[in-house]
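Structure tokens please, single chain.
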Amino acid sequence: MNFKMPSINRGLVSLFLGIGLLAGSASVPALNQKQAFSTTVSSHGIKMADLSIAGAQNESSASLVTYFNNKKVATAFLKGEALFDGLGERNYRVSASRHDVPSSPEIHVLDTDIDYVLDGTATYITGGTVVDSKTVAPNEIRGTAIINGETFQLSKGDVIIVPHGVPHWFKQVGAPFLYFQVKVR
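Here you go.
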């Protein structure tokens, strides 16, 4: 198969395929011998259909789809806010994230972060030890620095996945630093 897709769509395809892999059986039904899935990738995104029950699913699955037009997404990036907070009803959250200044080091006890960089640069530290760590909310820890961590230079098109429990920190950012973030619980 030979097709061209803008680089942002290829990145989003990777990002959302990663969500499916991390989400596990909570969001992707287990396959049995009678089920088959068809996946189509186009310039419009990914479409996955369970061919064995596609007829029964067509009417009800449309109500599960969440769509944000480009104006809503652009507004969310201006503010750096969540597009979808499904942690109560789903096991993920999708945000149009923005950093104009460095952040505090953090550890999410339950959430894995999947980040796809759209614009800007950042020096990102993962692992190591969080200095002066304190719990700021249930299952959320913050600190003042990270020592003995691994340094990544993030830029447009990069994807980084930080599993729950791993310290991470935007130590420096080239503003504006814009990225789609998916939190998977």
